[in-house]
Amino acid sequence: MAKRNALGKGLGAIFTDLVDDGSPKPRYVVCGVEELRPNSFQPRRSFDGDEIKNLADSIRTNGIIQPIIVRKIDSGYEIIAGERRWRAAQAAGLREVPVVVREATDRDLAEWSLIENIQREELNPIEEADAYNRLLSNFHLSQEEIALRVGKDRSTIANSLRLLKLPSKIREALVAEKITAGHARALLSLQSAAKQMSLFHNINSKKLSVREAERLAKEAGKKTAAPKKESHRPGFRELETTLSRSLMAKVVVKPKKRGGVLEIRYRSDDELNRVVERILSSEIG
Questions:
Q1: Among this protein's residues, is 83 annotated catalytic?
Q2: Which is the catalytic residue, given 35, 51, 78, 83?
Q3: pLDDT tens digits, residue range 173-213?
């Protein structure tokens, strides 16, 4: 339980031994940049080129102040936290980087990677939702457990996961920041993908605000579907009533384009036997 609480407070609460306590003893080792592998559970899909370049410039001047956290794998080390620093170190021409080696399961890796990115606010809404979904699907965590680990409300996790139900074109627009998460939530209030896409195009073409999108979504949601045409031809309803009384069981007539189905419903074996007897008897003329 202590570990779960720590996870909700960021990586500093997990790796408490990395906090500088004034001890002269180094807490890291140095390894070649080629020995590191990207995090296989990294929720971040893309890294901004300018951001990496600026960090690389800083590393050339000041070096890597914070070591990269890794776990040992057969072919070297897999990054737990600090992939951005590793990429910038390569751009800066460094051959070696400081690392701290930790024991970590796949689930630890997925959780810690998500937490680091959330703490830095580096994930777009779809990346964050994908990461939550991976914890649900691959590691069978509940929404409540995920909420505890990342320090958010369960409703926030649920709303984030709902974004994955949007049509792919809308998800791509959200990643590209053509619409906001507020627009996406307005679209989610509509039940059909067709209505969502219609409003989405409206939002884009007219540059609608979130409030305007919410209003249109509410109006669209109030529109009810046209009532279904009566499937019975004239007289079928009366026929059902007559047969039901005669057989003492529910009878439904289902006409089709060619022919149809006469359905007799019963609730028990006794009722079935009674219906069969009445059909076979001469009482039915």
A1: yes
A2: 83
A3: 999 999 999 999 999 999 889 999 999 999 999 999 999 99
